[in-house]
Amino acid sequence: MAELNTGGGEGKKGGKKVRSKKQNAGVDLTAMVDLAFLLITFFMLTTSLSKPQSMDLTMPDKIKDPTTKPQEAKESKTMTILIGKDRKLKYYMGILKEPYQGVGPTDSTYGQNGIRKIILQKMANLKASGQVGKDGVVVLIKAIEEATYTDMIDILDEMAITGVEIYAIQDMTEEEKAVMQ
Amino acid sequence: MAKMKKSSTRIDMTAMCDVSFLLLTFFVLTSTAKTPEVHPVDLPVSTKETKIPSDDILSITVGQENVYIGIAGKEDRKDILTRMGQEYKIEFTEAEKNAFAGLENFGADIREMKTLLAKSPGDRMQEEFHKGIPYKDSLNNQLSSWVRNARESSWQRKESFLKVAIKGDANEQFGTIKEIMNILQEQRQNRFYLVTGLRSDDF
After folding, report:
1. Burial level of B202, CB count in 10 A (0-12/13-18/19+)?
2. Spatial contact of A142 and A171, defined as CB atoms under 8 Å apart
3. Pfam families, alphabetically (chain B) (predicted)?
């Protein structure tokens, strides 16, 4: 359509006969395409196609309500993750002073080969005795003030990946702070 | 002798034109312009992909221990500013409220808000005017006031619960984030959306 048909070869045969120029039916679209692409580029660059994602976090109510009892968790189901400075990470089971099955504060790392294995192992152990989902593992996350926000998000992400249903962010006790030093 | 067909040097652009306009239409219709931010932060990454609701939300940006607030909705912004004015005994004129309605996010002290709103629209977003919203002093906790007024506004006008999103810088100390969460929890705002980016590396 955009071709120009200005009768190429025919002109030679006809000699010097003067012809009225054939009107070209096609429109030159080059400029229009140029403009369209310019606009496309503009919109592509200014658009934020994907909205940022988020993590839903619900914290327990701080204002004490005397009618509700604090949730109790069995020692055997509790796992505490301690987040320290400079990506330091420790975990222990049960109570700090007398850890469950002797698993006291142990060093670990972030990611699939570190803490995730431990959580999945713990979940598998509890699953063997039929404790899954809301009856399963309870993870307490405690971070010191100097830890970064990324550390906390990484651990919360770990909760999402492993599918731990009950977890809570708590303040670190003095004993735990001493362990993290 | 058969003549060689002369091939045209021109390309038919009709199809190309069609496609490009189709794409153009798509982008025009789907685009929501990026909102300029007073203080852009590096978001931490996660694998979770919960989308953030786009209306009735108050976003708190935390970076270098400074706090910035973003409120969705022009009408909401006007109403919240009026409420803040009542609390801090500052009378805002209609022009100032309209100017505030155009501010997607801000980090200015309420007592300096009048000066900020008197500036030309182009200058309002400059970082020097946004030193962060005071929140460390319990006697002058403006962050708390903003959240309270925003919650009241959203409840009284729309009967909906305000949602709060926290946009923390990846390298921010957790202590700062905890302080913000404590301020929110004092008002029984226990549910937050932690804004993150998408994790691309193998975690």
Report:
1. exposed
2. yes
3. ExbD (PF02472)
CA dist., res. A63 & res. B14, Å (int): 68
Does the pLDDT at position B2 exceed 70? no
Mutation target to probe the B interface, by most B beta carbons within 10 A, among A3, A153, A161 is A153
Measure the CA–CA gap between B145 and B84, rounded to whole angstroms: 7
The pLDDT score that the predictor gives to residue B134 is: 83
Per residue in A99-154, pLDDT (tens digit) is 777 777 888 888 888 888 888 888 888 888 777 767 778 888 888 888 888 888 88
Distance of CA B145 to the CA centre of its chain: 18
Paired tokens of B86: 């009542």
Whole-complex ipTM: 0.75
Q: Which residue of A has its CA nearest to B30?
A: A49
CA distance A85 to B183: 24
Q: Which of A54, A117, A156 to mutate to test the interface with B (most CBs of B within 10 A)?
A: A54
What predicted TM-score, i.e. pTM, was given to this entire model?
A: 0.73
What average pLDDT does range B12-22 have in this prediction? 86
β-pairing, B191-198 vs B45-46, is parallel
Is residue A64 predicted with pLDDT exceeding 80? Answer: no
Which residues in chain B are contacts of A41 at CB distance < 8 A? none
Q: Å from A4 to nearest chain B CA?
A: 8
CB spacing of A153 vs B194 below 8 angstroms: yes
Among the partner residues B33, B47, B170, nearest to A149 by beta-carbon distance: B170
